Amino acid sequence: MTEKRTPMVAGNWKMNGDRSLVESFTNALNDKAFDRMDVIVCPPSVYLSMFNAEHFQIGAQDVSHLDNGAHTGDISTEMLKELGARYVIVGHSERREDHNETNLLVAKKVARVIESGLIPIICVGEALSVREAGEEKLFIGEQVAALFSEVTADQLKQSVIAYEPVWAIGTGKTASPEQAQDIHRFIRHVLSEHDADLADGIRILYGGSVKANNAQALFSQPDIDGGLIGGASLNTKDFIAICQAAI
Ligand code: 13P
Fold it and tell me: 61 C-alpha vs ligand 1 centroid, how far in Å?
């Protein structure tokens, strides 16, 4: 990792957690001084306002691409900001699969998030069938390129990208550090076709079965700036150990 990119570890609780988990995370993370990295917790949105985060930041797992209005069940960027969110995960593979989110909708959400002043954590990654066909770079290249239909390279500069191979999510089967590094470098290459500074400066996280015992090997790769953590982000000890592996 280059000196200029600050390491980041973000926990994606998905549809898990309760008030007592909010409390134990708030206490455990506020107890630590993570001064050379960014630590983010992304709980379900209903819990955002229950955090009293001092040494970490909070983020949402999804957001509407629309402004406030007649959109039953949706949550706007303005609402998330009011609850203290600083980040929003956008385009997670579970949203793309379960809610038919397309590359275009993801790009629109990213545009809305950036415009609102929040920071998107933009997820990309291929399914097993795509990797088995040897088409992962084509697929991921399209996911990344689609962003530029709605935002400029300049606007993307503060954003974060997360590479999450779908076959590694929740399966216990992580990408090898070399496989992950190869895709991270490729994502920078795609970005460099738009803007060299963007490619060099943007943080790219790896996600997919990151645990305390494999985090260091992944995070020490030159183009991996930290992780987006699912299952292991629900346990304070495991999550803190993963954060420490990123410094
Ligand atoms: P796991 O760490 O449980 O594999 O989940 C990864 C993920 O989807 C984070 O967004």
Answer: 12
* 164 annotated active-site: yes
Q: What is the pTM of this model?
A: 0.98
Residue 216 has pLDDT above 60, yes or no: yes
Identify the active-site residue in 65, 92, 94, 126.
Answer: 92
Residue 130 carries which side chain, given as an amino acid letter? Answer: V
Domains of the chain: 8-246 (3.20.20.70)
Rg (CA), the chain: 17
With residue 93 as reference, give the H or E element that holds it: helix 93-98
d(CA 69, ligand 1 centre) in Å? 32
**Could you report the per-residue pLDDT of 147-162, keeping only the tens digit for each?**
999 999 999 999 999 9
Q: Which secondary-structure segment (H or E) carries 218? A: helix 215-219
